[in-house]
């Protein structure tokens, strides 16, 4: 009897030892709002609900399976629809992520966010996070109260990716709908469907199959640890506005940008960034006023070619919203047009 009890104790101690040897990674979830924290009056309501209604603890408690993949803790950074994200909030978020990832006891960060500007904030962190530990954004298209809400699975998959040793050094990622996208490339392509995040030219970094991330590709563009941008001491980002190109686009949009002391303008141009005579006059005026102008494309994909006959710099393959993020970030350290153009080709 005594012998049996001794063996049982020994086995228990050994299994506890084995358990602590496979300690789960510590992933911090930073919540900022969006539909993933959205609440509607009925389970069939998938539009017209309140985004950013639930707190981070509610999101975590709704997914008990998180405990099997990571030791998860949560913080509320904001609770807003992402159309109300501001450069002040993204600066604060970048700062907090840098602080957390500098801690030895944090292995990765997951950020919950609205989908509407989910091509912007992740790209800002891709440029400004000083760590190769995983940073993964996630979101949802259906509110938490809907039938077949996509938020809980997206959160579980985002934490699974952040906890995976293979996720290190790949730049900031966006996980939704079983896909792992690169912050540099993905954008929202459909107003309401679940499979909305795509990178039409570059595709995904990988997929999640049976609860396991499968990485397929790496991003060539510079990000995170190799990025020259450091905004840890920056208190406000320079003002950069986007002016859309279209038939009859009026020159007075540029006058407004000049009058409001914009530091930069992204011209969301037609086709490959072509410029109407009215916009050409506006851009010339803006450049004379010291504003840096970058031509992007409103088409949704493709590279804007360098063309010495056209005014301004070019955004490479960055869509107008992402180009604005890069120009704001670049202007925190230089106004040199050659250097800024170089950044657009390499980040
Ligand atoms: N207004 C939206 C936002 O927070 C809700 C859309 C969403 O999160 O899917 O971006």
TrEMBL record:
The keyword Zinc does not apply. GO terms for molecular function: asparaginase activity. Residues 26-218 form the L-asparaginase N-terminal domain. The keyword Hydrolase applies. It is an enzyme of class 3 (hydrolase). The active site is at residues 35, 115. Belongs to the asparaginase 1 family. This is Type II asparaginase. It comes from Candidatus Pantoea multigeneris.
């Amino acid at each position: 009897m005594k012998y049996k009890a001794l063996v049982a104790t020994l086995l228990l101690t050994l299994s506890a030892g084995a358990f602590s040897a496979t300690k789960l990674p510590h992933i911090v979830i930073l919540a900022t709002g969006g539909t993933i924290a959205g609440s509607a009056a009925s389970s069939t309501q998938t539009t017209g609900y309140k985004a950013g209604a639930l707190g981070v603890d509610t999101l975590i408690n709704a997914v008990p399976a998180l405990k099997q993949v990571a030791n998860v803790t949560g913080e509320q950074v904001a609770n807003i629809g992402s159309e109300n994200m501001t450069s002040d909030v993204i600066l604060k978020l970048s700062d907090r992520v840098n602080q957390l990832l500098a801690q030895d006891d944090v292995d990765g960060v997951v950020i919950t966010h609205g989908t509407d500007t989910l091509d912007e904030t992740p790209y800002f962190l891709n440029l400004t996070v000083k760590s190769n530990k995983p940073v993964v954004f996630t979101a949802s298209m259906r509110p938490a109260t809907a039938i077949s809400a996509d938020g809980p699975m997206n959160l579980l998959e985002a934490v699974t990716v952040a906890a995976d040793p293979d996720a290190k050094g790949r730049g900031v990622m966006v996980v939704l709908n079983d896909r792992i996208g690169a912050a540099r490339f993905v954008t929202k392509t459909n107003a309401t469907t679940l499979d909305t995040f795509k990178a039409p030219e570059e595709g995904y970094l990988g997929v999640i199959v049976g609860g396991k991330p499968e990485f397929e590709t790496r991003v060539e563009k510079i990000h995170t640890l190799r990025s020259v941008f450091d905004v840890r001491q920056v208190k406000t980002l320079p003002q950069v506005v986007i002016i859309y190109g279209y038939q009859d686009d009026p020159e007075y949009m540029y006058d407004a940008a000049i009058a409001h002391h914009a530091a930069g303008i992204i011209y969301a141009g037609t086709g490959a960034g072509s410029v109407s005579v009215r916009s050409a006059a506006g851009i010339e005026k803006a450049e004379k006023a010291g504003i840096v102008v970058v031509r992007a494309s409103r088409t949704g994909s493709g590279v804007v070619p360098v063309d010495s006959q056209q005014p301004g710099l070019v955004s490479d393959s960055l869509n107008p919203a992402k180009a604005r993020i890069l120009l704001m970030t670049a202007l925190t350290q230089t106004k040199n047009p050659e250097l800024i153009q170089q950044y657009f080709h390499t980040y």
